[in-house]
Structure prediction request, 267 residues.
Amino acid sequence: MATPALITLTTDFGTQDGYVAAMKGVMLSATPTLRFVDLTHDVAPQDVMEAAFLLKTAAWEFPPGTVHLVVVDPGVGTDRRPVAIRAGGHYFVGPDNGLFSLLLDGDPIDAGVTLDPAQVSPDERLSTTFHGRDLFAPAAARIAAGAALRDLGPALDELKALHWALPIPDAEGIRGWVVHIDHFGNCITNIPQSLLEEHREGRRVACYVGTGVVRGLQHTYGNVEKGEPLLVVGSSDVLEIAVNSGNAATMLNIRKGAPVNLVFKEE
Prediction:
């Protein structure tokens, strides 16, 4: 495999401060030929689950060998482990706070290490509040330049485990939750299309969420009039509550974590 030279970045830093630029500066100082793709810097502060969800929607679209640098790190400076792992032909660098176990969702890692600052960048500083700059960025740059994981620290036995909340089906419907609200106000649930179709069995759907009831499952946004709410299976193959040319979260007063109750009814 050719030496990977592509690094994606996912953080909760926003863009008004210099934190992301500082990490890129460190990496470019080590390897000037690196290429960067910013997946997102708008993860809600310290929201590990949102970071995992957003990473999951995009990371696997990149070519094998890509290094994914993820810094959503509410435990920075504590005894939480800094890690680098290889899984599915990709590399991931960041804190071991459950984010990577959510991303992999039960799939095993191919290899992993606990990052040792003395091996990653022995002559550099290590701030207690900015491991993104002082540990994770140098590690990501070294991996992208061809370093073996074993050169960055001792072998990792297992990742800290976190698990997604699962939807609950029964004969009459499915109870789920809103796991993400995107830029357009589409409310993305944890109800996969496969589960929906398995239990719906051709019946009509009514969705009770926020302050409203949305009826019927559509193929795309334009199947309803502008300003009308709808249910649709989105590009991540899960159920979404949307509004054609509008904002479902605002219209229906839906927040992340809101319960979603689907009720199936005969024609």
